[in-house]
Amino acid sequence: MWYGGILALILIIFSSGVYIYFRNSLQKSIDAKIKSIGDVLASSMTDTHNQGVFGNFERYLENVLGRKPKGKIIQIIDASGKIGAKMNDIETGTVPVKFTTLERAWKGEVVYETLEDMNPKLRLVTIPIFENKRVNGIVQVGSSMADFDETMTKLLIIMIIGIPTSLSITIAVGYFMARKALKPVDQIRRAAVKISSNNLDERIDIRGRRDELSRLSETFNAMISRLKDAFQRVNQFSNDVSHELKTPLTILKGETEVVLRKERESGEYKRLLVSNLEEIDRMSRIIDDLLLLSKADTKDITLNLESVSLRDLVADVCMNMKIFADNQGVNLMVDELADVRFTGDELKLRRMFLNILENGIKYTPQGGTVTVSSHASNGHVSVNVKDDGVGISEDHIKYIFDRFYRADRSRKRESGSGLGLSISKWIAEIHKGTIEVVSRPAHGSQFSIKLPI
Ligand SMILES: Nc1ncnc2c1ncn2[C@@H]1O[C@H](COP(=O)(O)OP(=O)(O)OP(=O)(O)O)[C@@H](O)[C@H]1O
Ligand SMILES: [Mg+2]
Prior knowledge:
This protein has helices at residues 2-48, 57-65, 99-106, 146-194, 212-260, 266-297, 310-328, 346-362, 394-397, 420-430, and strands at 72-77, 83-88, 111-115, 122-131, 134-144, 305-309, 331-334, 341-345, 369-377, 380-387, 434-440, 444-452.
Protein backbone atom coordinates (compact mmCIF):
# COMPACT_ATOMS: atom_id res chain seq x y z
CA MET A 1 0.00 0.00 0.00
CA TRP A 2 2.87 2.35 0.77
CA TYR A 3 4.49 1.45 -2.49
CA GLY A 4 1.23 2.06 -4.39
CA GLY A 5 0.54 5.29 -2.53
CA ILE A 6 3.98 6.71 -3.20
CA LEU A 7 3.83 5.66 -6.82
CA ALA A 8 0.39 7.28 -7.21
CA LEU A 9 1.67 10.49 -5.69
CA ILE A 10 4.69 10.55 -7.99
CA LEU A 11 2.55 9.81 -11.05
CA ILE A 12 0.01 12.51 -10.17
CA ILE A 13 2.66 15.14 -9.51
CA PHE A 14 4.51 14.20 -12.67
CA SER A 15 1.39 14.19 -14.85
CA SER A 16 0.13 17.47 -13.45
CA GLY A 17 3.53 18.94 -14.23
CA VAL A 18 3.37 17.62 -17.78
CA TYR A 19 -0.21 18.83 -18.19
CA ILE A 20 0.50 22.33 -16.96
CA TYR A 21 3.70 22.65 -18.94
CA PHE A 22 2.02 21.38 -22.07
CA ARG A 23 -0.95 23.69 -21.64
CA ASN A 24 1.27 26.73 -21.13
CA SER A 25 3.51 26.08 -24.07
CA LEU A 26 0.56 25.35 -26.35
CA GLN A 27 -1.09 28.57 -25.27
CA LYS A 28 2.16 30.44 -25.77
CA SER A 29 2.48 29.14 -29.28
CA ILE A 30 -1.10 30.20 -30.06
CA ASP A 31 -0.38 33.61 -28.55
CA ALA A 32 2.80 33.92 -30.57
CA LYS A 33 0.96 33.05 -33.76
CA ILE A 34 -1.90 35.51 -33.33
CA LYS A 35 0.47 38.17 -32.09
CA SER A 36 2.67 37.84 -35.14
CA ILE A 37 -0.32 38.14 -37.45
CA GLY A 38 -1.56 41.11 -35.48
CA ASP A 39 1.87 42.74 -35.59
CA VAL A 40 2.17 42.34 -39.30
CA LEU A 41 -1.26 43.82 -39.79
CA ALA A 42 -0.68 46.69 -37.39
CA SER A 43 2.56 47.70 -39.05
CA SER A 44 1.26 47.26 -42.58
CA MET A 45 -1.62 49.51 -41.81
CA THR A 46 0.53 52.38 -40.66
CA ASP A 47 2.91 51.84 -43.57
CA THR A 48 0.44 51.97 -46.35
CA HIS A 49 -2.04 54.20 -44.73
CA ASN A 50 -4.20 52.24 -46.92
CA GLN A 51 -7.82 53.13 -47.32
CA GLY A 52 -8.41 50.17 -49.60
CA VAL A 53 -7.94 47.94 -46.63
CA PHE A 54 -11.53 48.10 -45.72
CA GLY A 55 -12.70 47.65 -49.27
CA ASN A 56 -11.57 44.09 -49.82
CA PHE A 57 -10.23 42.97 -46.51
CA GLU A 58 -9.71 39.36 -47.36
CA ARG A 59 -7.70 40.24 -50.43
CA TYR A 60 -5.71 42.64 -48.38
CA LEU A 61 -4.95 40.01 -45.77
CA GLU A 62 -3.81 37.60 -48.44
CA ASN A 63 -1.48 40.27 -49.75
CA VAL A 64 -0.01 41.14 -46.37
CA LEU A 65 0.20 37.69 -44.82
CA GLY A 66 0.96 35.79 -48.01
CA ARG A 67 -2.04 33.52 -47.57
CA LYS A 68 -5.46 33.57 -46.13
CA PRO A 69 -5.26 32.88 -42.35
CA LYS A 70 -7.18 29.77 -41.38
CA GLY A 71 -9.26 29.34 -38.24
CA LYS A 72 -8.81 32.97 -37.28
CA ILE A 73 -10.90 36.00 -36.60
CA ILE A 74 -9.39 39.32 -37.53
CA GLN A 75 -11.02 42.66 -37.05
CA ILE A 76 -9.82 46.19 -37.25
CA ILE A 77 -11.32 48.88 -35.09
CA ASP A 78 -10.80 52.35 -36.42
CA ALA A 79 -10.15 55.57 -34.59
CA SER A 80 -13.82 56.22 -34.14
CA GLY A 81 -14.26 52.92 -32.29
CA LYS A 82 -16.20 51.18 -35.06
CA ILE A 83 -15.32 47.84 -36.46
CA GLY A 84 -13.85 48.88 -39.75
CA ALA A 85 -13.05 45.53 -41.29
CA LYS A 86 -13.62 41.98 -40.30
CA MET A 87 -12.68 38.52 -41.37
CA ASN A 88 -14.08 35.44 -39.69
CA ASP A 89 -12.95 31.96 -40.54
CA ILE A 90 -14.52 30.41 -37.47
CA GLU A 91 -18.07 29.27 -37.13
CA THR A 92 -18.83 31.67 -34.33
CA GLY A 93 -21.02 34.63 -33.73
CA THR A 94 -19.81 38.16 -33.38
CA VAL A 95 -16.88 38.59 -31.19
CA PRO A 96 -17.88 40.70 -28.23
CA VAL A 97 -15.56 43.62 -27.82
CA LYS A 98 -14.95 44.28 -24.19
CA PHE A 99 -14.83 47.84 -23.13
CA THR A 100 -11.94 47.33 -20.67
CA THR A 101 -9.85 45.63 -23.31
CA LEU A 102 -10.38 48.45 -25.76
CA GLU A 103 -9.61 50.99 -23.12
CA ARG A 104 -6.30 49.34 -22.34
CA ALA A 105 -5.48 48.99 -26.02
CA TRP A 106 -6.20 52.64 -26.66
CA LYS A 107 -3.62 53.35 -24.02
CA GLY A 108 -1.09 51.41 -26.09
CA GLU A 109 -1.19 48.06 -24.33
CA VAL A 110 -1.27 44.65 -26.00
CA VAL A 111 -4.03 42.62 -24.35
CA TYR A 112 -4.43 38.84 -24.41
CA GLU A 113 -7.65 37.24 -23.33
CA THR A 114 -9.51 34.00 -23.56
CA LEU A 115 -13.17 34.26 -24.36
CA GLU A 116 -14.49 31.27 -22.51
CA ASP A 117 -18.17 31.63 -23.26
CA MET A 118 -17.78 31.60 -27.02
CA ASN A 119 -18.26 28.37 -28.91
CA PRO A 120 -15.58 27.38 -29.76
CA LYS A 121 -13.50 29.15 -27.16
CA LEU A 122 -11.46 31.99 -28.49
CA ARG A 123 -7.98 33.30 -27.75
CA LEU A 124 -7.86 36.93 -28.64
CA VAL A 125 -5.08 39.45 -28.86
CA THR A 126 -5.80 43.13 -29.08
CA ILE A 127 -2.98 45.20 -30.52
CA PRO A 128 -2.98 48.96 -30.85
CA ILE A 129 -2.02 50.47 -34.22
CA PHE A 130 0.32 53.37 -33.76
CA GLU A 131 0.55 56.29 -36.03
CA ASN A 132 2.91 59.10 -35.10
CA LYS A 133 3.18 57.64 -31.66
CA ARG A 134 -0.57 57.84 -31.20
CA VAL A 135 -2.97 54.98 -31.17
CA ASN A 136 -4.92 55.28 -34.33
CA GLY A 137 -6.73 52.01 -34.43
CA ILE A 138 -6.81 48.51 -33.06
CA VAL A 139 -6.21 45.09 -34.56
CA GLN A 140 -7.84 42.12 -32.94
CA VAL A 141 -6.70 38.66 -33.93
CA GLY A 142 -8.51 35.70 -32.48
CA SER A 143 -7.81 32.04 -32.83
CA SER A 144 -10.13 29.17 -32.14
CA MET A 145 -9.13 27.16 -29.12
CA ALA A 146 -10.97 24.09 -30.40
CA ASP A 147 -7.79 22.21 -31.29
CA PHE A 148 -6.19 23.31 -28.10
CA ASP A 149 -9.13 22.12 -26.01
CA GLU A 150 -9.25 18.87 -27.87
CA THR A 151 -5.56 18.25 -27.36
CA MET A 152 -5.79 19.08 -23.69
CA THR A 153 -8.86 16.88 -23.24
CA LYS A 154 -7.11 14.00 -24.95
CA LEU A 155 -4.09 14.46 -22.72
CA LEU A 156 -6.34 14.51 -19.68
CA ILE A 157 -8.12 11.35 -20.80
CA ILE A 158 -4.81 9.62 -21.42
CA MET A 159 -3.75 10.54 -17.92
CA ILE A 160 -7.03 9.61 -16.27
CA ILE A 161 -6.95 6.21 -17.92
CA GLY A 162 -3.18 5.74 -17.86
CA ILE A 163 -2.47 6.56 -14.24
CA PRO A 164 -4.92 4.15 -12.59
CA THR A 165 -4.12 1.46 -15.15
CA SER A 166 -0.37 1.62 -14.72
CA LEU A 167 -0.86 2.01 -11.00
CA SER A 168 -2.96 -1.11 -10.72
CA ILE A 169 -0.64 -3.09 -13.00
CA THR A 170 2.35 -2.00 -10.94
CA ILE A 171 0.64 -2.77 -7.67
CA ALA A 172 -0.52 -6.16 -8.91
CA VAL A 173 2.93 -7.08 -10.25
CA GLY A 174 4.60 -5.67 -7.14
CA TYR A 175 2.26 -7.62 -4.90
CA PHE A 176 2.91 -10.78 -6.84
CA MET A 177 6.67 -10.29 -6.76
CA ALA A 178 6.75 -9.36 -3.09
CA ARG A 179 4.67 -12.40 -2.25
CA LYS A 180 6.94 -14.63 -4.28
CA ALA A 181 10.04 -13.12 -2.75
CA LEU A 182 8.70 -13.32 0.77
CA LYS A 183 7.34 -16.82 0.50
CA PRO A 184 10.41 -18.33 2.19
CA VAL A 185 9.84 -15.95 5.10
CA ASP A 186 6.48 -17.53 5.64
CA GLN A 187 8.07 -20.95 5.35
CA ILE A 188 10.62 -19.94 7.94
CA ARG A 189 7.82 -18.75 10.15
CA ARG A 190 5.88 -21.98 9.78
CA ALA A 191 9.01 -24.05 10.39
CA ALA A 192 9.74 -21.99 13.49
CA VAL A 193 6.23 -22.58 14.77
CA LYS A 194 6.61 -26.34 14.34
CA ILE A 195 9.97 -26.56 16.03
CA SER A 196 10.12 -27.65 19.62
CA SER A 197 12.74 -29.51 21.58
CA ASN A 198 11.41 -32.86 20.42
CA ASN A 199 10.86 -31.90 16.81
CA LEU A 200 14.13 -30.61 15.49
CA ASP A 201 13.98 -32.41 12.17
CA GLU A 202 12.02 -29.63 10.50
CA ARG A 203 14.03 -27.91 7.76
CA ILE A 204 13.24 -25.10 5.37
CA ASP A 205 13.19 -26.04 1.71
CA ILE A 206 15.73 -23.88 -0.14
CA ARG A 207 15.62 -25.69 -3.49
CA GLY A 208 18.08 -23.97 -5.78
CA ARG A 209 17.37 -20.42 -4.73
CA ARG A 210 20.33 -18.09 -4.36
CA ASP A 211 19.37 -14.92 -2.59
CA GLU A 212 19.35 -13.26 0.80
CA LEU A 213 16.39 -15.28 1.94
CA SER A 214 17.93 -18.58 0.91
CA ARG A 215 21.00 -17.62 2.89
CA LEU A 216 18.76 -16.75 5.80
CA SER A 217 17.09 -20.13 5.43
CA GLU A 218 20.47 -21.84 5.33
CA THR A 219 21.48 -20.05 8.48
CA PHE A 220 18.20 -21.01 10.05
CA ASN A 221 18.63 -24.67 9.03
CA ALA A 222 22.17 -24.69 10.38
CA MET A 223 20.88 -23.19 13.61
CA ILE A 224 18.27 -25.95 13.95
CA SER A 225 20.97 -28.55 13.35
CA ARG A 226 23.09 -27.04 16.07
CA LEU A 227 20.11 -26.89 18.39
CA LYS A 228 19.39 -30.51 17.63
CA ASP A 229 22.96 -31.47 18.45
CA ALA A 230 22.85 -29.44 21.61
CA PHE A 231 19.57 -30.99 22.71
CA GLN A 232 20.87 -34.45 21.97
CA ARG A 233 23.96 -33.76 24.00
CA VAL A 234 21.91 -32.45 26.88
CA ASN A 235 19.68 -35.52 26.76
CA GLN A 236 22.63 -37.85 26.57
CA PHE A 237 24.23 -35.97 29.42
CA SER A 238 21.22 -36.23 31.71
CA ASN A 239 20.98 -39.93 30.88
CA ASP A 240 24.60 -40.39 31.79
CA VAL A 241 24.29 -38.37 34.97
CA SER A 242 21.27 -40.33 36.13
CA HIS A 243 22.92 -43.58 35.30
CA GLU A 244 26.17 -42.62 36.96
CA LEU A 245 24.44 -41.57 40.17
CA LYS A 246 21.99 -44.40 40.16
CA THR A 247 24.60 -47.13 40.46
CA PRO A 248 26.14 -45.96 43.75
CA LEU A 249 22.67 -45.26 45.12
CA THR A 250 21.52 -48.79 44.26
CA ILE A 251 24.55 -50.17 46.00
CA LEU A 252 23.98 -47.94 49.04
CA LYS A 253 20.36 -49.05 49.22
CA GLY A 254 21.09 -52.74 48.65
CA GLU A 255 23.86 -52.99 51.19
CA THR A 256 21.95 -51.00 53.78
CA GLU A 257 18.85 -53.15 53.33
CA VAL A 258 20.80 -56.36 53.67
CA VAL A 259 22.47 -55.18 56.87
CA LEU A 260 19.20 -53.93 58.33
CA ARG A 261 17.43 -57.22 57.73
CA LYS A 262 18.46 -58.51 61.17
CA GLU A 263 20.32 -57.47 64.30
CA ARG A 264 24.07 -57.26 63.65
CA GLU A 265 27.17 -56.73 65.64
CA SER A 266 28.56 -53.25 65.81
CA GLY A 267 31.54 -54.26 63.63
CA GLU A 268 29.22 -55.09 60.78
CA TYR A 269 27.47 -51.72 61.04
CA LYS A 270 30.83 -50.07 60.94
CA ARG A 271 31.79 -52.00 57.81
CA LEU A 272 28.54 -50.93 56.20
CA LEU A 273 29.11 -47.32 57.05
CA VAL A 274 32.66 -47.41 55.70
CA SER A 275 31.42 -48.96 52.49
CA ASN A 276 28.60 -46.44 52.29
CA LEU A 277 31.05 -43.64 52.82
CA GLU A 278 33.01 -44.83 49.78
CA GLU A 279 29.93 -44.67 47.62
CA ILE A 280 29.04 -41.28 49.03
CA ASP A 281 32.54 -40.04 48.29
CA ARG A 282 32.24 -41.32 44.79
CA MET A 283 28.93 -39.58 44.26
CA SER A 284 30.12 -36.34 45.72
CA ARG A 285 33.17 -36.49 43.46
CA ILE A 286 30.94 -36.93 40.42
CA ILE A 287 28.72 -34.10 41.57
CA ASP A 288 31.72 -31.84 42.16
CA ASP A 289 33.00 -32.62 38.67
CA LEU A 290 29.59 -31.98 37.16
CA LEU A 291 29.30 -28.71 39.00
CA LEU A 292 32.68 -27.66 37.70
CA LEU A 293 31.75 -28.60 34.14
CA SER A 294 28.41 -26.84 34.28
CA LYS A 295 30.08 -23.73 35.63
CA ALA A 296 32.57 -24.07 32.80
CA ASP A 297 29.66 -24.23 30.35
CA THR A 298 28.09 -21.06 31.67
CA LYS A 299 31.53 -19.43 31.84
CA ASP A 300 30.85 -18.78 35.49
CA ILE A 301 34.38 -19.42 36.64
CA THR A 302 37.12 -17.07 37.69
CA LEU A 303 40.71 -18.13 37.25
CA ASN A 304 43.23 -17.45 39.97
CA LEU A 305 46.03 -16.46 37.67
CA GLU A 306 49.50 -16.59 39.10
CA SER A 307 52.98 -17.37 37.92
CA VAL A 308 53.54 -21.12 38.14
CA SER A 309 56.75 -23.05 37.74
CA LEU A 310 55.66 -25.89 35.51
CA ARG A 311 58.63 -28.00 36.46
CA ASP A 312 57.84 -27.77 40.19
CA LEU A 313 54.17 -28.37 39.57
CA VAL A 314 54.66 -31.46 37.40
CA ALA A 315 57.30 -32.85 39.76
CA ASP A 316 54.94 -32.34 42.67
CA VAL A 317 52.08 -34.08 40.90
CA CYS A 318 54.37 -37.02 40.11
CA MET A 319 55.37 -37.21 43.78
CA ASN A 320 51.70 -37.32 44.75
CA MET A 321 50.93 -40.06 42.24
CA LYS A 322 53.94 -42.11 43.21
CA ILE A 323 52.08 -43.95 45.96
CA PHE A 324 49.18 -44.70 43.64
CA ALA A 325 51.59 -46.01 41.00
CA ASP A 326 53.36 -48.19 43.55
CA ASN A 327 50.03 -49.61 44.67
CA GLN A 328 49.19 -50.46 41.08
CA GLY A 329 52.59 -51.96 40.51
CA VAL A 330 53.34 -49.42 37.79
CA ASN A 331 56.70 -47.73 37.32
CA LEU A 332 56.43 -43.96 37.36
CA MET A 333 59.44 -42.38 35.66
CA VAL A 334 60.12 -38.69 35.48
CA ASP A 335 62.26 -37.66 32.54
CA GLU A 336 63.73 -34.29 31.88
CA LEU A 337 61.38 -31.46 32.82
CA ALA A 338 61.67 -28.09 31.09
CA ASP A 339 62.10 -25.21 33.50
CA VAL A 340 59.46 -22.73 32.36
CA ARG A 341 57.17 -20.36 34.17
CA PHE A 342 53.61 -20.15 33.11
CA THR A 343 50.79 -17.86 34.13
CA GLY A 344 47.77 -19.88 35.05
CA ASP A 345 45.51 -21.21 37.74
CA GLU A 346 47.74 -23.54 39.71
CA LEU A 347 44.96 -25.60 41.30
CA LYS A 348 43.31 -26.28 37.97
CA LEU A 349 46.58 -27.07 36.21
CA ARG A 350 47.42 -29.48 39.02
CA ARG A 351 44.07 -31.15 38.59
CA MET A 352 44.66 -31.55 34.85
CA PHE A 353 48.09 -33.14 35.31
CA LEU A 354 46.73 -35.39 38.06
CA ASN A 355 43.91 -36.59 35.80
CA ILE A 356 46.18 -37.43 32.91
CA LEU A 357 48.77 -39.08 35.10
CA GLU A 358 46.11 -41.01 36.99
CA ASN A 359 44.73 -42.29 33.69
CA GLY A 360 48.20 -43.35 32.56
CA ILE A 361 48.73 -45.34 35.72
CA LYS A 362 45.17 -46.65 35.87
CA TYR A 363 45.15 -47.95 32.31
CA THR A 364 48.56 -49.60 32.51
CA PRO A 365 48.74 -53.12 33.81
CA GLN A 366 51.06 -54.21 36.56
CA GLY A 367 54.72 -54.00 35.61
CA GLY A 368 54.12 -51.28 33.03
CA THR A 369 55.81 -47.91 32.92
CA VAL A 370 54.49 -44.37 32.81
CA THR A 371 56.97 -41.72 31.75
CA VAL A 372 56.50 -38.00 32.32
CA SER A 373 58.58 -35.48 30.42
CA SER A 374 58.28 -31.91 29.27
CA HIS A 375 60.08 -29.67 26.88
CA ALA A 376 59.69 -26.12 25.66
CA SER A 377 59.92 -25.02 22.05
CA ASN A 378 58.90 -21.96 20.07
CA GLY A 379 56.49 -20.38 22.50
CA HIS A 380 54.98 -23.62 23.73
CA VAL A 381 55.68 -26.00 26.49
CA SER A 382 54.45 -29.54 26.13
CA VAL A 383 54.07 -31.98 28.96
CA ASN A 384 53.97 -35.58 27.79
CA VAL A 385 52.59 -38.51 29.73
CA LYS A 386 53.45 -41.74 28.02
CA ASP A 387 52.40 -45.19 29.13
CA ASP A 388 52.74 -48.69 27.76
CA GLY A 389 49.30 -49.75 28.91
CA VAL A 390 46.12 -50.90 27.20
CA GLY A 391 45.95 -48.09 24.70
CA ILE A 392 42.82 -46.73 23.07
CA SER A 393 41.38 -48.05 19.85
CA GLU A 394 40.60 -45.91 16.82
CA ASP A 395 36.83 -46.12 17.48
CA HIS A 396 37.10 -44.74 20.96
CA ILE A 397 39.80 -42.17 20.66
CA LYS A 398 37.60 -39.40 19.28
CA TYR A 399 35.17 -39.70 22.16
CA ILE A 400 37.42 -39.99 25.19
CA PHE A 401 37.21 -36.26 25.85
CA ASP A 402 33.41 -36.43 25.98
CA ARG A 403 31.66 -36.36 29.28
CA PHE A 404 31.06 -39.72 30.87
CA TYR A 405 32.78 -41.50 28.03
CA ARG A 406 34.73 -44.57 29.00
CA ALA A 407 36.30 -46.77 26.39
CA ASP A 408 35.75 -49.90 28.37
CA ARG A 409 32.48 -49.68 30.23
CA SER A 410 32.70 -53.20 31.46
CA ARG A 411 35.72 -52.32 33.56
CA LYS A 412 34.99 -52.10 37.23
CA ARG A 413 33.21 -48.99 38.40
CA GLU A 414 36.05 -47.83 40.58
CA SER A 415 38.04 -47.02 37.44
CA GLY A 416 36.21 -43.71 37.19
CA SER A 417 33.21 -41.87 35.89
CA GLY A 418 34.59 -40.65 32.59
CA LEU A 419 34.68 -36.98 33.45
CA GLY A 420 38.44 -36.67 34.04
CA LEU A 421 39.45 -35.98 30.44
CA SER A 422 36.63 -33.57 29.70
CA ILE A 423 37.62 -31.52 32.72
CA SER A 424 41.28 -31.70 31.70
CA LYS A 425 40.48 -30.61 28.19
CA TRP A 426 38.48 -27.68 29.49
CA ILE A 427 41.34 -26.67 31.80
CA ALA A 428 43.82 -26.82 28.91
CA GLU A 429 41.48 -24.71 26.79
CA ILE A 430 40.95 -21.97 29.35
CA HIS A 431 44.73 -21.71 29.42
CA LYS A 432 44.67 -21.46 25.61
CA GLY A 433 46.30 -24.84 25.34
CA THR A 434 45.42 -28.21 23.85
CA ILE A 435 45.59 -31.87 24.76
CA GLU A 436 46.57 -34.32 22.06
CA VAL A 437 46.65 -38.05 22.23
CA VAL A 438 48.36 -40.76 20.20
CA SER A 439 47.62 -44.30 21.10
CA ARG A 440 47.92 -47.84 19.87
CA PRO A 441 45.80 -50.53 21.49
CA ALA A 442 47.90 -52.89 23.60
CA HIS A 443 50.98 -50.74 23.08
CA GLY A 444 50.17 -47.68 25.12
CA SER A 445 49.20 -44.07 24.80
CA GLN A 446 50.83 -40.69 24.93
CA PHE A 447 48.95 -37.62 26.09
CA SER A 448 50.62 -34.29 25.24
CA ILE A 449 49.44 -31.14 26.94
CA LYS A 450 50.53 -28.09 24.99
CA LEU A 451 50.43 -24.71 26.68
CA PRO A 452 51.54 -21.38 25.29
CA ILE A 453 54.24 -19.75 27.38
N1 LIG B 1 46.21 -43.50 29.24
C1 LIG B 1 45.13 -44.13 28.83
N2 LIG B 1 45.21 -45.38 28.30
C2 LIG B 1 44.12 -46.02 27.86
N3 LIG B 1 42.85 -45.52 27.89
C3 LIG B 1 42.73 -44.28 28.41
C4 LIG B 1 43.83 -43.53 28.89
N4 LIG B 1 43.36 -42.33 29.31
C5 LIG B 1 42.03 -42.35 29.10
N5 LIG B 1 41.64 -43.50 28.57
C6 LIG B 1 40.27 -43.88 28.19
O1 LIG B 1 39.51 -42.70 28.09
C7 LIG B 1 38.37 -42.80 28.95
C8 LIG B 1 38.04 -41.45 29.52
O2 LIG B 1 39.00 -41.01 30.44
P1 LIG B 1 38.59 -40.08 31.63
O3 LIG B 1 39.79 -39.72 32.39
O4 LIG B 1 37.77 -39.01 31.08
O5 LIG B 1 37.63 -41.00 32.47
P2 LIG B 1 37.95 -42.07 33.57
O6 LIG B 1 39.42 -42.12 33.80
O7 LIG B 1 37.30 -43.34 33.13
O8 LIG B 1 37.18 -41.50 34.82
P3 LIG B 1 37.64 -40.32 35.80
O9 LIG B 1 38.87 -39.76 35.23
O10 LIG B 1 36.48 -39.39 35.74
O11 LIG B 1 37.81 -40.95 37.10
C9 LIG B 1 38.75 -43.78 29.98
O12 LIG B 1 37.63 -44.41 30.49
C10 LIG B 1 39.64 -44.76 29.22
O13 LIG B 1 38.86 -45.69 28.56
MG1 LIG C 1 40.51 -40.41 34.32
